[in-house]
Design a protein that fits this description.
Elements (H helix, E strand, L loop, with lengths): L2 H5 L14 E5 L38 E3 L3 E8 L1 E3 L5 E12 L24 H4 L16 H9 L34 H5 L10 E7 L5 H7 L6 E6 L12 H6 L3 E6 L8 E4 L3 E3 L13 E5 L15 E12 L30 E4 L2 E4 L9 E6 L3 E4 L11 E7 L5 H4 L6 E3 L2 E5 L3 E6 L23 E3 L10 H6 L9 H9 L10 H7 L4 H6 L15 E7 L4 E6 L12 E7 L10 H5 L5 H16 L4 H7 L9
Parallel strand pairs: 2-16, 6-9, 17-20, 19-24
Antiparallel strand pairs: 1-3, 3-11, 4-10, 5-6, 5-12, 7-8, 12-15, 12-16, 13-14, 17-18, 20-22, 21-23, 23-24
Length: about 625
Amino acid sequence: MNRILISTVLLLGLLSTVYGDCYMQYPRGSNDRLNEANENRNNDNRLFDSQNNAKGGYCYGPTQSYYTGSVLPVEYTAQHACGNDGVECNIVMQYMCQSGDTSTLDPLTIMRDGTTTNTIPNNAAQAVQTDGNGNYVYGMHESYYYYQNCSTRERNKGLFTADQNVGNDATATRQNPNANRYGYECQEERDYYPYWAPSPWKDIVVFANSQANCALYVSQSQNVAPKGYCTVTPAQAGQAVPSTQAECLTKTGGVWNVAPAHGIPPPDCQQAPWSRDNHLGDGLAAGSTNGYNWTLPTADTEDCASSASGCNCVLRIRYNISNANIDGWGLQDGKFTDASDNNANSPITTDPIQLANGKNVSLAVNTAQYGRTFQDRSYIFKIIPRDNGLTADDKIYNLGVRGKRGNIVQTFPATEYDYVPKALTTNVGDYIHFQWTGCDTNPANNDGEGKAQTDRSNLVQVANANMNTPMTDADIAAGTTPMLFSDPQVRAQFTYIGQDETTCLNYDQLLAANGNNANNAEQDVRNCMKLNAAPTGFFNGGVVKMSQTGTYHFMNTRNNNFSNRTQKGSITVVDVPKTLPKYGVALIVIGAAIVGVAAAGAGGFVYAKKNPYSGIANVYRKMPGPLGRI
């Protein structure tokens, strides 16, 4: 692997020195938080380098478990735009899994959320410290051994570093020249993609600035491509291990090794979805948050997915941005910005003064941030085998809740509460796994209903999307609106989310117990009407089979507060004969049209199926019948 080949990897950049940010909105992204109740996180070095604002992220909630092969909607917001002419951008989603039976694993490799916000020590004995309950104190994603390899490996000297004075090993990059440590993350791997050395991360999807670059990303992904690395025996103190094969083989005791590919399918690669700059909002897809429908691993790709203990996994999103001042990709014209452009040859310098229209102007330029990566990661979640008669052929969609307690200003850059997906279309016979989590350590002064600091969500049906009161027993008895849950006990379960009703007080009793103080009555843990008696923010409604066509609208009785915040969602169930080919449905629906129009429609339908957050998907979603099943 020579210098030029190494340097053709994606260089990651930013337009200015402002903190700019990418946040995982669903599943809940931590942004290096844990359970601190402050407005800002305690420690931005806890697990990984996010480069995000300290106010972002969601606090820890009880672990969620998803069925193998089910569809998990991943949603994110990115501040500095993507998919438009103002920026060069790539977004990479990756995951890492290991056996849920941690007794079989080396403690220095066990992924965990931890119980402290302190950074895990770079010391093997201290890293595995446990508390009085036997829980590991320090959070960890990448293993201890992975970081040791990174910190002793020479950094790629073929990369563009501008005028930055970058350290010698792979923990130092232009973005992190001083090699600050963030958990056991390898900074060089974090900042560049595709990476040239072995990595535990497996690729899900690349949203590319140009689809012309997809061939490189797909072919060089470790999903399908082996990665080389050097070992030197005996280790030479103070000397970094070479990063290239040529240098390795000339080193005394050097041996070039090849780590096999992960042996899973290559990542999906798509045109990056559009978003505007200086904004952490929705994209163009029906005004929805940008994201991706991830079909979770099965036993074909993760052995642990078939075991009783399942897999423990973590998800990450990296948001990589650059601009026309440096050619970080170089795949169109063959000329990319690399080490030959460093120092005096650098096309960018720190805070330059330039002549514009005959006048001197001072520019805000930080060369460490022209080529910049932001990221966010989920908390640990589980992937578990299917049970209760679910077969491998059954389609399972996950429906959850995103957001945190507070008004729009207090929650930013996270979001207020909402269901995810907000509008889901399924087929008769498909299943939905209703499940969400939340925490009890939101900032104390954040606005909201019920007990302060707590996330609680239920799900009750409303007659239509414009209603803000649940259907009454009389409405249900009238039979004019089809019911999402036909069983009254299931409806009650989703309404009271597992509260112990023997502890509940009615409103008069609550007032009497709280000296007629309405505010205190609302905070009382016996106020089941505000869901205060739910022991945690976690609720698992189980898997429900969709058996009847129709559109079902629902809301959260605690958090939906008209003119303040809305928490509503909908499920549309259609009936597409399952004997038809998956994408052949479009041809039948358009069967009366001419062949050319039918072919175009089918092509659009296929695209919409593969890109459910796209604008064309929204067009199809509004169509009656099976085309609406996007």
